[in-house]
Amino acid sequence: MSIDQNTAARVAKLARIKVEQDALPALADEFNTILGFIEQLNEVDVDGVEPMTSVTPQRLKRRVDEVTDGNQQAKILSNAPDAREGFFAVPKVVE
After folding, report:
1. What is the three-state SS of the chain?
2. Is 94 among the domain residues?
3. pLDDT in the model for residue 30
4. 88 DSSP β-pair partners
5. What total number of domains does the chain contain?
6. pLDDT digits (tens, 9 = 90+) for 62-86
7. What range defines the domain where residue 35 resides?
8. 70 lies in a domain?
9. 83 and 77 Cβ atoms separated by less than 8 Å
């Protein structure tokens, strides 16, 4: 696949990047260089290679997944302009 100047201008417009007309040939060449690198990566045989998230194996810290109320009701409601019976009180908006 090859990128021409019109396509480079369209990509710049979609990215909301102002590119002067005389800079379009260089931009198209850069896009073509990037696409060439991607084509080189597609030639690599990755069958049987397991995906990884880091170059060093790491195990995430785990905790028990427990549902709690946070035990902060009084602290949270202390900032409310109006609280009643443990809840935020708001004006009635529907008759």
Report:
1. CCCCHHHHHHHHHHCCCCCCHHHHHHHHHHHHHHHHHHHHHHCCCCCCCCCCCCCCCCCCCCCCCCCCCCCCHHHHHCCCCCEECCEECCCCCCC
2. no
3. 96
4. 83
5. 1
6. 888 888 878 888 899 998 999 999 8
7. 5-42
8. no
9. yes
Question: Would you state the pLDDT for residue 24?
Answer: 95
**pLDDT of the residue at 68:** 83
- Exposed, middle or buried: residue 19 (CB in 10 Å: 0-12, 13-18, 19+)? middle
Q: Which of 8, 47, 53 is nearest to 31 (CA)?
A: 8
In a domain, 22, yes or no: yes
| 23 falls within a domain | yes
Report residues of the chain scoring pLDDT below 70: none
Q: What burial class does residue 9 get, using C-beta atoms within 10 Å of its C-beta: 0-12 exposed, 13-18 middle, 19+ buried?
A: middle
Structural tokens at position 82: 């109006």
